């Protein structure tokens, strides 16, 4: 494989994207078509595209092809704004899909955090979230049903923060956050329609009520090119 050739191809597509000749969200020609156009092997084409993906300029959706990466949403975890609200405020269209929910016994870690007996019932919720119809985020969360009785009967595709405020007169107040740059595990990658091992952002969050009780333990897996973390720290 010629390093010179795939660098040239990278530069060609990078320029088209930077000049907005290829617009955000637009689909690239197939790898076969690119290879035929530039008389390059499939291996060379794939290497160039993977390098552009690593730069965050394009992304691959399984069984659909390569696309120009849309602008990343800016996420300030300390703001307490819901996903729907901060995505909408930035001019994008949010959507949430519930993949699974079930009442299950709390493991030792969750029980300790929530100050409930081990094996006490908690609600496990697994959701996929979209920005402009692109899957960008997988959520796996444990919800304290002792504080939120009957929540499993609610529409859990909506904003949980709004649901808590409107139906339970509760609000998120404090939170603990852990950020990890990671390779996406196969389960999250499959849910997002991408190959396992792609770079991603893993966020672990514990949400508390105003009286310091744990409402929710949340594990998020983001596409690496879909989000920019911006935390405002004020005196």
Could you state the order of secondary-structure elements as H and E?
HHHEEEHEHEEHEHEEE
> What gross morphology would you assign?
elongated
Helix content: 25-40%
Fraction of residues in β-strands:
25-35%
Q: What is the first-to-last residue Cα distance?
A: 55 Å
Unreliable stretches, pLDDT < 50, 5 or more residues? none
Taking all Cα atoms into account, the compactness measure Rg is: 21 Å
In brief, what are we looking at here?
With 235 residues, the protein is an alpha+beta fold.
Description of the molecule:
- By secondary structure, the protein is α+β, with helices and mostly antiparallel strands.
- The chain has helices at residues 3-18, 31-38, 42-54, 83-89, 108-114, 160-168, 186-192, and strands spanning 58-61, 65-68, 73-75, 94-105, 121-131, 134-143, 175-183, 199-208, 214-223, 227-229.
- The strands form three sheets. The chain has a six-stranded antiparallel beta sheet with strand order 4-5-6-9-8-7. Strands 1-2 form a two-stranded antiparallel sheet. Strands 3-10 form a two-stranded parallel sheet.
- A hairpin with a 5-residue loop joins strand 8 (199-208) and strand 9.
- The longest helix has 16 residues, at 3-18.
